[in-house]
Amino acid sequence: MKVFALGLSLLCFSCSQSKQKTEKLENYTSKKDTFEEVKEENNKIIYLNNNNAIPFLHEYGKKNPENKVRIITKYGNIDILLYENTEYHRANFIYLTKINYFENSMFHRVVKGFIIQGGNSDNINISKKRKKIGRYLLPPDVKKGYNHNRGVISMPSSENENPHKMASPYEFFIVQQSPGAYHLDGSYTAFGEVISGMNVVDKINTQPTDKKEMPLENIYFKTVIIE
After folding, report:
1. Which of 62, 167, 183, 207 has a 20 to 30 Å separation from 143 between CA atoms?
2. Which segments within 112-198 are labelled E, that is strand?
3. How many angstroms separate the CA atoms of 210 and 227, rounded?
4. Euclidean distance between the first and final Cα of the chain, in Å?
5. How many domains are contained in the chain?
């Protein structure tokens, strides 16, 4: 049985951290937890918050330049190229992949002819992982020239009061709509694209859902790996 609730507004789904009040974008860099507190070593889980997440991801991204990931599902594989110049979003996705956050998460929202959204789960271990990783949001990065073409991977906004469109770091969506969902440009950060496996995205997008756009059958990620 699904045991978590999702909001119904467009692309505004809560993470376990979303009750905290959104801080203005400048707060990400105006305060600095001395970086000694957030050094990454051997993909150890570092507790992140709105003060240390950006400096941590900046350094993590330099040490971990990978930009290709594979999402493995029962319907097949989805290979994604992450854009290098959306540095915080790329680094965040690589970090969560390397610390195995996505294990047992799933595509928890399907909007027919529009998007599939993943990164959440009714598995209690996902909530436990989020508590361990921390409460933080990512600033938007919408001026790199990327459009929400079919196959683009992007980040939904946090559900809380959010005038700056801060992004939920744990979730993402893939545009299934053809030729694209261009009304999202400028509001959500496109940070990668599917390079193989759009047939899998299409298959997932056809799955029956309930009134909350949740698939009637859980579509778990078997794993997410660095290619």
Report:
1. 62
2. 115-120, 152-154, 172-175, 190-196
3. 34
4. 33
5. 1
Contact, 201 vs 77, CB < 8 A? no
**Would the pLDDT of 43 be above 50?**
yes
Looking up residue 75, the CATH number of its domain turns out to be: 2.40.100.10
Domain residue limits at 194:
27-226
Tokens of 155: 């980040």
Q: Indicate whether 18 belongs to any domain.
A: no
Per-residue tokens: 104: 């047992």
Strand partners, 67: none
Which amino acid is it at 24?
A: K
128 Cβ contact list (under 8 Å, min separation 6): none
Task: Tell me whether residue 72 is in a domain.
Answer: yes
64-86 pLDDT, tens per residue?
A: 999 999 999 999 999 999 999 99
Distance CA 171, CA 216 (A): 19
> E strand or H helix at 106, and its extent?
strand 106-111
Beta bridge partners of 225: 70
Cα angle value 67/132/94 (rounded, 5°): 0
Are 180 and 187 in contact by the 8 Å Cβ rule? The answer is: no
The reported pTM is 0.81
Backbone angles phi, psi at 90, to 5 degrees: -65, -50
In a domain, 210, yes or no: yes
